[in-house]
Design a protein that fits this description.
- By secondary structure, the chain is mainly alpha-helical.
- It is built from ten helices and two strands, in the order αααααββααααα.
- The chain has helices at about 1-10, 10-40, 50-80, 90-110, 110-115, 135-165, 175-215, 225-245, 245-265, 280-295, and strands spanning about 120, 125-130.
- It has a two-stranded antiparallel ribbon.
- A hairpin with a 6-residue loop joins β1 and β2.
- One of its GO terms (cellular component) is membrane.
- It is found in: Membrane.
- Keywords: Membrane, Transmembrane, Transmembrane helix.
- InterPro entries: GPCR_Rhodpsn_7TM.
Length: about 300
């Protein structure tokens, strides 16, 4: 099993998908803890240091998820446009980029920590950067969301332009093979763009409610609850879509749930003392009777 996992991780695309899925899973886990604090007597605010760390962790994991899609876009760009430069599709490069992604995210969130932007929200039982802090939210949206989305857009726009230019050139055998591979990549890219579109939608409620708060001089009372529910739905959609667009994950999901269900039905088949199912034993008996009848019908040589 461990060997199989190592072999799958050699697929860079699968490795990057696992990295993104891990970020999304951590966002969901942190969000569940924060919602739980609201439901169960505000256990997070009993220790304000832990409360600040939990709010910071939520932003770290969500930001890392956005930048992980940047790395996926860069990988597709190198695989299609710069396919001749083999060092750009080396596994070690992307392992380094994943590590660098986390270092970058920590660096980007260092100013909010030093500026003490994380506080306990007045209407909630957890800590985050309040949407009423306009300067903090502008920094937050710019560096944690807009920049990665712009990078993703540039990568896929470059790929699209390159594919259109290649489609107009003459075709030889090697070019045809590469084109078929690129067409498969384009299908995956279209699906990833759908996921990125969901990420863009993820920020719309925040921006809309912030604008409402500035105009009304006060936030809507259910602002954080609405954003929390919308975030949960979007992350759930991303999880389902990721399984659908990743053949390895889809196969693993099928093997885990479908085959396990079939195995349960097989295990429930009644057995007798011989350890065989009744239908199997009946088949053996019929076969033996047929063989005995054939022996009787064979003429003896001495006759």
């Amino acid at each position: 099993m461990a060997y199989k996992c190592r072999q799958e991780l050699k697929d860079i695309s699968f490795l990057l998908t696992c990295s993104t899925s891990l970020c999304a899973l951590l966002v969901c886990a942190t969000l569940c803890v924060m919602i739980g604090s609201n439901l169960f007597d505000g256990f997070l605010i009993r220790n304000m240091t832990f409360c600040y760390v939990m709010g910071l962790s939520y932003d770290i994991f969500e930001c890392a998820m956005y930048y992980s899609y940047c790395i996926q876009g860069f990988y597709r760009l190198c695989r299609i446009v710069f396919y001749q430069k083999k060092y750009l599709v080396a596994q070690s490069l992307y392992i380094g980029l994943i590590i660098g992604q986390w270092i970058l995210v920590f660096g980007l969130l260092l100013p909010p920590i030093l500026m003490q932007w994380y506080i306990r929200l007045p209407t909630e039982q957890y800590c985050l950067i309040p949407y009423t802090n306009i300067a903090a939210e502008i920094y937050h949206i710019l560096f944690l969301y807009i920049i990665p989305i712009v990078c993703i857009g540039i990568s896929y726009a470059w790929i699209t332009i390159f594919m259109r230019q290649k489609s107009q050139t003459s075709l030889v055998a090697a070019t045809i093979n590469r084109r078929h591979r690129n067409e498969r990549d384009v299908v995956i890219i279209k699906r990833i763009i759908l996921l990125v579109f969901i990420l863009v939608l993820l920020r719309f409620p925040t921006i809309g409610l912030m604008i409402y708060g500035v105009m009304a001089q006060d936030l809507y009372p259910l602002t954080y609850g609405i954003i929390g529910i919308f975030t949960s739905v979007c992350l759930g959609s991303i999880g389902i879509s990721t399984i659908y667009v990743t053949p390895q994950l889809r196969k693993q999901f099928y093997n885990t749930f479908i085959h396990l269900n079939n195995r349960v039905h097989i295990d429930q088949t009644p057995m007798n003392q011989t350890g065989l199912a009744p239908a199997t034993i009946e088949t053996i008996k019929v076969t033996k009777r047929s063989q005995q009848r054939d022996v009787i019908l064979v003429p003896r040589n001495d006759e």
